[in-house]
Amino acid sequence: MSSRAYDCLTKIGERIIENKDYLTDLDREIGDADHGVNMARGFHAVAEKVPADMEDIGALLKKTGMTLLSTVGGASGPLYGTAYMEAGKVVAGKTALTAEDLKLMLDAAIAGIQKRGKAVKGEKTMLDALIPAYETYAAAVEAGDELLPALEKACAAAEEGVEFTKTIHATKGRASYLGDRSIGHQDPGATSATITLEALRDFLKEEE
Ligand SMILES: Nc1ncnc2c1ncn2[C@@H]1O[C@H](COP(=O)(O)OP(=O)(O)OP(=O)(O)O)[C@@H](O)[C@H]1O
Ligand SMILES: [Mg+2]
Q1: pLDDT tens digits for 83-133?
Q2: Number of compact structural domains in the chain
Q3: Ligand 2 centroid distance, CA of 35 (Å)
Q4: How far apart are the CA of 188 and the centre of ligand 1, in A?
């Protein structure tokens, strides 16, 4: 039998793989047309390597992060790999998540991405989806929301963040070579980050 955490991870992987061409097309406009291919390769490897019966969410995320790190490649491989591994550290040994756990996981994932990629908000990266999502999520939880309603608000903030990436020019990664010509295009990494959060939201919604 597969664990609930594994089923959730599978949903995330399926969504990424379904959006392979979409993500790659976005990266064709401002990068090198490989983001969807990179991410899909990573999640195919995750499906092969992560044991389905793994219940410890921390261990599952660690294994996922290590697998992404060694298979995704590009700029996003180390960044997503680090994000999953750092998120896993704060929930080591847990088999279910509280609203507070997810807040800590998002915070740790973002800190890991920033430590590795040296980017801040507003540079047209995945952080432009993740940071507003985290801020919205944390505010909702502090105001008393349960996990799912807070995550729904966070997903809306991530989508707004993706829209925002169309209005700014890139200063990190390959897209920065385009300068102002990157304006008008949506960031692929912000899009894949939003797809990830929405997959988590939809998994939890379907369970209700
Ligand atoms: N320093 C960074 N910090 C956070 N995210 C970044 C950084 N550099 C790139 N990214 C994200 O990675 C995405 C591109 O990932 P991809 O899988 O296409 O790798 P890549 O082709 O090597 O990347 P790039 O062309 O940006 O160097 C971007 O859309 C952006 O969101
Ligand atoms: Mg690329």
Answers
A1: 999 999 999 999 999 999 999 999 999 999 999 999 999 999 999 999 999
A2: 1
A3: 5
A4: 8
Full domain range(s) for residue 171:
4-207
Tokens describing residue 135: 């801020």
Helix ranges restricted to H, 19-126: 20-30, 35-49, 57-71, 76-89, 99-117
- What lies within 8 Å, CB to CB, of 31 at 6+ separation is 173, 174, 175, 188
Cβ neighbours around 98 below 10 Å, total: 13
* Structure-token pair, residue 13: 């992987």
Q: Which atom of ligand 1 is nearest to the CA of 117?
A: 1
Place 179 in a pLDDT band, splitting at 50, 70 and 90.
Answer: confident
Buried b / exposed e across 164-178, counting CB within 10 Å, b at 16+? Answer: bbeeebbebbebeee
Domain containing residue 179: CATH number: 1.25.40.340
Query: How far is the centre of ligand 1, averaged over its atoms, from the C-alpha of 144 (Å)?
Result: 35
- For 48-73, what is each residue's pLDDT tens digit? 999 999 999 999 999 999 999 999 99
